[in-house]
Amino acid sequence: MHTKTKGNIGELFVAADLYSKGFSVFSEYGDNSKIDIIAAKGSNLYRIQVKSSYLKDGKITLSKTSSGPGYKYEYTKDDIDIFAVLDLEDKSVCYVHIDEFKDKGTLCLRKLPTANNQMKNVRLFADFLKFPE
Question: Does domain 3-128 have CATH number 3.40.1350.10?
């Protein structure tokens, strides 16, 4: 599946999920912004970057960088507030505040147990299902 198609599917599922949670949802025309969706609830606005991925080795790896032909960009809290992550297999969505990255470039969001059942320093996808208001 083309990456743009995966991205479009992700944005649609995230928008529907946010709408079902009582948010008003706004999207961009075109593809020139770092923000994919703006979600509003009450007087609060949230800038959201959507990532769509399949599980690999029981986890989804979320990167705070985006790249393409001739560019590489790292998202900051000046750009977005939250990453919305769609698991393309089961269509579940989780929400990761950009502050969760601290000084790291990637986060692994585990959906299946590790091979050795390690739990220390393991981030679970399920722990991010609730929107971080």
Answer: yes
